[in-house]
Write a structure and sequence with these properties.
2 copies of one chain form a homodimer.
Chain A: E1 2-11, E2 14-20, H1 21-24, H2 31-39, E3 59-65, E4 73-80, E5 87-88, H3 94-106, E6 116-123, E7 129-135, E8 147-149, E9 152-164, E10 182-185, E11 190-198, E12 200-206, H4 218-224, H5 229-238, E13 254-259, E14 264-265, E15 271-272, E16 279-285, E17 288-289, H6 295-305, H7 311-315, E18 322-327, E19 330-339, E20 342-362, E21 370-371
Parallel strand pairs in A: 2-3, 4-6, 12-13, 16-18
Antiparallel strand pairs in A: 1-2, 1-20, 3-4, 4-5, 6-7, 7-9, 8-9, 9-20, 10-11, 11-12, 13-16, 14-15, 16-17, 18-19, 19-20
């Protein structure tokens, strides 16, 4: 048994356990083994650990000072397995980035400066630069605030998140296949997707060609999802993320469907009118329907909106510098920062809250379970 | 924002947050408000708190020294709402009692005595006396162990749990209605239940009369459950737990179906033969199918087995002093302690593990959320 200090922070619609690098390195076990045992990943219920047994509540980030000029904090995101002893390191998580921004101010890693404090972050999984702009009224850290976001009833501290130079962080290109739209033949007809790399690599399929609208409930999209995962695999290979026939990571490409705005009912029962948003989006996360949308996927959709003829561009209402995504949890807005035609940033409004500070007791991996008589 | 110290302990198949009474009383907010805010109960996902968003992971207990002679510890169990700002105080939870036993030794409330240390507990919700017998090899507290139980892959410290004088703790009678079996008319035919009060008040329906077997998967029993909740309500009224037409607590009566042993597949894929257990049981918890069985329900089933002609007695294989329950998670054994015909105790083998010690940051209830622009 070893003790590991960690901080539980809600960032947007995720719960993330944040660890200072000095608290988890050199503990006589690999970082991966420490996370899996701490979260209780062996059980689907994560009943023997601090994990929350869903993809949005089984997340961690390891945080350190950055030695890079102009960067305050490095963080490494870990998607910790649920019912499987595996950690995915292949992608970033913007919600955890939001949590890291608040934590950096709380823990003194970054000193508050004025009414809002910018935390300059590097995500080490993808190399992405992200700024978190944390509300610090009166030049001080506050643990709680009044900011709310779609998908979370409880308020928190307002955190603006800007993905800097989000294009091509994995494949060096906005459109890894070189095309605005790629066609995938099906047994009947064809599916059309824009394969985009911004925030994270993402495959954004036209909903209509798949018999969907993009405005499904979480349950409806969940029912359709199993038959669509083959398309995700083919898109991953086509983007160069995997060899033909080889395995494609659970984390990337992000996968979803987009469609024209239409009236729908959000998960909390709110009626949302077609006029109130610009594009319908339903995303998957770890092969399950996402209850809202991941932030890196939001960046990908925003970037695809700048591409003439993309699946997003084809359906999205034209607007100036902002795109509003209709998700199951409600409408999420993204602000586009452009240098001429080039997308140099995507800004999102988020909230975060520090939930708990804990000493986690981590069982050693070498124990051999023995059944009770 | 207030800070509250708590300890997260797995007890059996539940995760429980345990609080010393001095850490949660007199904090400028009611205990109920503190728990609801700490757990993030406002959201169905409990995304803004330490709750796990399921009935087995949204539990707390408040612990104090007992002033009663022959009792070491008093604990009060709280079933904290998920997506609803309500705490149920109406029942005990044996799994949390298991956690409390381990915590009492860890925290020094009870000093280890020899290879096994008995923690004498009073559950204040029901008045029940329970002994937890905690493995303390070499006369010392150990944070981990090799004991496993059905429904949890991870091992923990062996804890034996004995419910003392479990009969009639709520209604003063083993059979509150006075009958071994009560009949409830349905639109077609009738349902038969044994209404028993031991461990907790429980309504144990004969599965067959409801078109079930008692050996359903969790999903199958979950599909049948909505149509059965009317029977639970009628049983609660018949036991005197509510006025006719009045509301029945979500917590009690415990509700389930029993049937003859038959081969079935447990949730983890293990095949279980009819010969390996004595009675099939499928229970509900907070209106959802229980993944295994609650311990107070286990006591109720064991007590019903001692009643000639009960729904359990009718199906259970006759055995001497032990009954093995076939649950979705596997086989759970209970040992009966009898004084002549009178049931004086029920003993269960459990395991527990201390997961984390935390300072939880609890938002104050008076904050008014304001939506972000």
């Amino acid at each position: 048994m070893i003790g590991v200090s960690g901080t539980l922070v809600r960032g947007g619609t995720s719960k993330c356990w944040l660890f200072d690098i000095t608290d988890v390195h050199g503990r006589g076990a690999s970082l991966e083994d420490v996370l899996l045992a701490a979260f209780g990943s062996q059980d689907h219920s994560q009943i023997d650990g601090v994990g929350g047994a869903t993809s949005t509540t089984s997340k961690a980030a390891i945080i350190s000072h950055s030695y890079e000029s102009g960067v305050d904090i490095d963080y490494t995101f870990a998607q910790v397995g649920v019912g499987v002893n595996e950690v995915e390191w292949g992608s970033n998580c913007g919600n955890c980035g939001t949590a890291v921004g608040l934590y950096a101010v709380q823990s003194g890693l970054v000193r508050p400066r004025g009414e809002q404090t910018t935390v300059r972050m590097r995500n080490t999984n993808t190399g992405s630069r992200i700024d978190a702009v944390v509300d610090t009224p009166g030049g001080r850290f506050t643990p709680s605030g009044n900011a709310t976001i779609p998908g979370v009833a409880s308020p928190g501290v307002a955190v603006g998140l800007e993905f800097l130079d989000p294009v091509g962080s994995t494949t060096d290109a906005l459109l890894p296949s070189g095309a605005a739209v790629d066609d995938f033949t099906l047994s009947e007809g064809a599916a059309h997707a824009t394969l985009v790399d911004a925030g994270a690599p993402a495959a954004l399929f036209d909903a209509e060609a798949l018999g969907l609208t993009g405005a499904e409930t979480v349950a409806e999209f969940g029912a359709a999802l199993p038959s669509l995962l083959g398309l995700r695999h083919r898109a991953g290979v086509h983007m160069g993320l995997a060899a033909p026939g080889g395995p494609v990571s659970h984390a990337v490409p992000k996968f979803g469907v987009v469609g024209a705005p239409r009236d729908y009912t959000a998960t909390d029962g709110t009626r949302i009118a077609a006029a109130d948003y610009d594009i319908s989006v339903r995303m998957a996360s770890m092969h399950a329907p996402h209850p809202a949308i991941g932030l890196t996927s939001t960046v990908a959709v925003a970037a695809a909106a700048t591409v003439q003829g993309s699946t997003v561009h084809a359906h999205a209402k034209a607007r100036d510098g902002e795109i509003r995504l209709g998700t199951p949890a409600g409408v999420v807005s993204a602000r586009l920062v452009l240098d001429g035609e080039r997308l140099t940033g995507v800004r999102l409004n988020r909230s975060a809250r520090v939930i708990a500070r804990a000493d986690i007791f981590v069982p050693r991996a070498e124990r051999v379970p023995v059944a009770l008589p």
